[in-house]
Amino acid sequence: MPTPTANIRNFCIIAHIDHGKSTLADQFLLKTGTVSERDIKAQTLDSMDLERERGITIRMHPVTIYHQHNGQKYELNLIDTPGHVDFNYEVSRSLAACEGAILLVDAFQGVQAQTVANAFLAMDAGLKIIPTLNKIDLPHARPEFVIGEMEQALMVNPDDVMRASGKAGIGIEGMLAAVIERIPPPAGKPDAPAKALIYNSHFDTYKGVVVYIRVMDGVIRPGQKIRLMRAGREYMISEIGQFRPEMQKCEELSAGQVGYFTANIKNIVDVNIGDTVTEAANPTAEPLTGYKEPKPMVYSGLYPVNNNEFEDLREALAKLKLNDSSFTYQPEVSDGLGFGFRCGFLGMLHREIIQQRLERDCDLNLVQTAPNVTYEILKKNGEVLTVHGPQEVPDAGQIEEFREPIVRISFLIPAANIGALMQMCTDRRGTFVRTEYLSQQRVILVYEMPLAEVIYDLYDKLKSVTHGYGTMDYELLGFKAADLVKMDILVHGQKVDALSVIVHRSNAERRGRIILKKLREEIDRHLFEVSLQAAIGARIVARENIAAMRKNVTAKCYGGDITRKRKLWAKQAEGKKRMKQIGQVEVPQEAFLAVLESDE
Known about the structure:
Shape: elongated
Mean pLDDT: 79
CATH architecture of the largest domain: 3-Layer(aba) Sandwich
Distance between the termini: 61 Å
Largest sheet: 8 strands, antiparallel
CATH topology of the largest domain: Rossmann fold
Oligomer: single chain
């Protein structure tokens, strides 16, 4: 018997990293008897090895739990979400499948950058928010102080704040009651034509594509013929079920419920996140709005170390794309590294996680090139080009304006570190916007900064400047003209395309020297002197030399007249001069890797 719509609650847990989302989810599973005391393990929903190792949530994890309240049985669909800024897209997708959200704040650390960002995402989606103070059992918890911060930054009524501890299991019954009493039931109509939102999917070797859905209207059953509206393809449903937390079959999914279906979908490309599922015979008139396509912020090349693995890499990327639609890829060829893919990521952690998932799950050995961002170029003929890498930059004579992506970045830091952070932002061409005080000790600093200055190591530098207490969140504003140039690297007078970079003119000389020093270490010495140069157009901005190997041609001369030795040296010099004119310098793959992987 399906649960009546009035007794269904769909909610997610949103918070900053390490504020206890997954631990609180564990307590919900335990208290409702979904998972027994014997089977529970820390972060039960974090199923990936990478999530367990790093102690972070990377993918959203849905689970259906049942709870008795005031003599009635309620079905609660919970989605545990990631906290890191790079996985913001996962959060926005889970919000679309819910009516409410538990906003979790650490009772010691207080409001952080991602707390604010995720809270506003939930408010924009029209969700009912349950503000909750977690970790109240910590000896150094500061509940009253942190509630004051929540009131200041998130406009939360202090009387509405729940208090809990995911680790100690305090306040969990009250939290479940609040979910049932405060979050509205879904508004769907069970008798309307079937309409469901695809909010996630993954590939199963035996079942094909497993599609995660939130049913908005109508009923979906096994044996029903459905249509994916964006792809325009029709399938017969073979299995339907819910996550409890393992996949468990059920008879049907009706309006308001969250679950999954399989339909023998073999082609990964047919399933689009945000697509609408409807009944083929009685389709719905209007598709759901779906999701705004995420824009990759960082681009990087992925190449198999062994070129024979190119097709394996293509297949692995297609499967990964199914589960993580926020990254993009397209084939490209590099002079130094052969065939590979140019991939777009939401950030540096996202890039690192994807590489590790490919290497582990698909047993591939990969090379990743240094990250760069997307630029815009206005040509003199009025055409606007989108440039993903230095190879696509036209000649300087054709460029009217070179534009770079600008982000608005919010730093939440201790007030004592304001000076150090401002200096760091100024060094990275940041423009000050405003300062907001959350309390006497904590402050939000807002800057506008080029994305290229953010992606490399700004997060690490922030942690070191604030001794681990600073957090940041950023959003893309658009493109702005800047004094950018394409810097070419010349080896023995020959331009090496794969090593070209786009840099700010003021930074070109320093960056050029760094690249040339790395190259000098990697390229073998030849019998003639090899010059390495960094050039902007025809102007050389940096130079290094690799000294020639010298053969001792006078070793056979012992004593005697010096003229004999001079003749041999002159002959050697002549030979070297000729060799320099016709000699070829081979740049080994290790040299490309040293430069391409160097994140300064």
